[in-house]
Amino acid sequence: MLETIDVNAELSKKDYQKLVESIDVRLGECQRAIREAGIPVIIVFEGWEAAGKGTAIGRLLQHLDPRGYKVHLIKPANEEELLRPPMWRFWNCLPSDGAMGIFEGSWYRHVLQDRVKKLLGKREWESAYERARTFERQLTDDGAVILKFWLHITQQEQAKRFKKLEKDPALAWKVKKEDWRQHKAYAKYLRAVEDMLRETSTANAPWTVVPTHCDRYASAQIAQTLLAAMSAALDAHGKAKAAPPPQPVAQAKRMDSVLDRVDLSRTVPRAEYERLMPKLQLELRRLEHLIYIKRIPVVIMYEGWDAAGKGGNIKRLTHELDRRGVEVISIAAPEGEEKRHHYLWRFWRHVPKAGHITIFDRSWYGRVLVERVEGFAAPAEWQRAYREINEFEAELTSFGAVLVKFWVHLSGEEQLKRFELRQEIPYKQWKLTEEDWRNREKWQDYYLAVSDMIEKTSTLHAPWTIIEGNDKRHARLKAIRTVNAAVANALKKR
Prior knowledge:
By secondary structure, this protein is of the alpha/beta class.
């Protein structure tokens, strides 16, 4: 593959200047249009050491408004980053809608290097490439533009550049012993690079190989590729905006649902509850210390009907925990920067580091619940979210996280009873809003959405636990028992 690249391709200074004059104006126009359209652009620069990544980025940025981009220099993961799933740090670097994120190095660099050094086996680097494809597809499905450049030079040219840098006292530091070791293993890296390009060049996020023996030629190719990609994205955006709005997908009534089989008559006597709950809380505290030692992250997620008792359940769950290792995230409608990113972005930001616990009061499932029912997400968006959510949860659990998902279920009659009680008790009135009453009017729509959610996203690695919520004591005991069992099972495997 790379052997077919014309590394001797050149562009004269005169032709380059003429081309730059045209591209400069057009790139500026496209960048402004991209910002107005709210299209995020992600540009990845990978390549051989001394291939000129810094030069290529510098020349490209000369055409762009610096207020509209941010450059990320990707180094080996630090201690904080190693305590979270591999893609966590890249989700945190993503540009908002209308902005550009430029990456020198990326989610590919460590995989390539560790593969050649045999620090990763075939199954591991294949999994890493699958993560990369998934990450990129999720972003482009949401409207992002992704460009990936591999800057290519021959082994002979690389040696020539290393020696030139070493002769200059001001630049010699750039060439390290590791660079020469990689240079000697050029053939091994070449095979791995070609494999990477084949495995991860997709229609939505293709690789462009750029020969950089002539930096003018390289700069022109990069600028023209970016211009073409942004123009195509703007054209597609214009057509989508002009098209009639998508019609709601008719949802057939289910003949049966997992919710229909829930036994809401289950109760626990007060005396039994008061005897068991303190013991279970202390056991969870003991387990919390063990997961810290073993560096196991725990994610606990609550969904459920309004007034189902999620808040009280979380309060009992955290009662004896060391709060330095626990964070409770209350999820409301996205605001500000959250609305200008992929919907999973705000949840990736709160992924706990290994050894800590994060509890979500509502979650990423809003995409297939409230956003689906209320029409905040288009049918295509919430329908593909089932796959995206399963992929997100698979990344968490493959990293070793314990993931516990609760749907707190209760009957319509019990919900009405709790609503009315909240109206009567002054210190509980704040809990009841007009939105709660509106949601209740759409009970059947939510019932269908919940049924689909549980069916499509209950997996072996991330199963749903339905909590019978009509009796709060039963619900609280079942939740803490489930968490304790899940954490204890993970500890047994370590």
